[in-house]
Amino acid sequence: MGEDNGLGAAVVGTGFGVLTHLRALRGAGFHVDALVGRDPEKTAARAAMFDIPFATTDLAAALERPGVQVVTVATPPHTHASVVLPAVAAGKHVMCEKPFARDRAEAQAMCDAAEVAGVVHLLGTEFRFATGQALLTRTIKAGAVGEPRSALFALHIPTLSDPKAELPAWWERAEDGGGWLGAYGAHVVDQVRITLGEITDVAATLETLAPRPGMTADDTYTVQARTEGGCNVLLHSSCAMGGPFVAATKVVGTAGTAWAQGDEVWVDDGTGARQVAPPEDLPLVPPDPPPAELLRTTYDMWHSMGTDLEPYTRLFTRLRELALNEPSPDDPPAATFADAVANQAVLDAVRAAAASGSWVKVAR
Questions:
Q1: Overall average pLDDT of the 74-97 stretch
Q2: Model pTM greater than 0.85?
Q3: Beta strand pairing call for 246-253 and 148-156
Q4: For the chain, which domains are there?
Q5: How many angstroms separate the Cα of 269 from the Cα of each of 71, 116, 143, 261, 309?
């Protein structure tokens, strides 16, 4: 556990908020003063398990705690505004999960409110701080492949091909911000933006392949995108395709190719493949799984390995530095609510493109 820096945090959300936010906050040196949930018994039990002094279903009560300077939001997307807006109005620094909002207008309202309040506002795109993703971004930006011209971001996992897989009700509803495009695609959109540049146009299909009657959210997306710099990007992923796990991340440019193999990054400029030296400031750290008794549903099991704990600890360390006005590196850059708005604009365009069957420009 990190050294207590005097900053207190309230965690809003008793699922992922406890599985990862709570543990990462403590690893970054925060003391967690309050846990806010919807179910009083569950909230109290999980607060007791982790020695959190205050458990409540009343957000206002948590915001009034004198030790709370930071709020982290790990609730369903359609509820984010109802937590973020009171938190920033109370002068709290906020880190909010992705997908950030139901649409760009809601995202912009939260961003504007945080800017007016003058608080630190960060987005939960923790994989900016993961060793492999950060190294790939640095490698591309350093010119290892020249000007990027084509890129592939693909992932298949078979989770929802099992009709018995347990998900929160909101996750299956498109109107509540559910689905795989928001859950995973938001990460990839963010990665494309910081690695290859802003996305200008998209064409897309969204599918629901899982045998789950009544599910309105997507579990599979295929997106063609173009960037300002002229890179053509294919984003394809599914959490409902049976068979083997598939993962591929590759960027081809005018001077070579770079790709990820797990946390390793490789390049080939025509003289043969070579591994890029791992970053000294972002070393690989063994995963730290959450307590097994907290893992109750399939949705929980997506976070069961603990691979996101170290990236989140790094993200919360950046939050601490910014909140305390301490010197803070700008690489990897932490995503702010302005990035959340830009990411949401791409997600909105993807949904519009899937509905219309045509290319759609991304709102700027």
A1: 98
A2: yes
A3: antiparallel
A4: 8-127+305-335 (3.40.50.720), 131-279+344-361 (3.30.360.10)
A5: 45, 47, 11, 17, 34
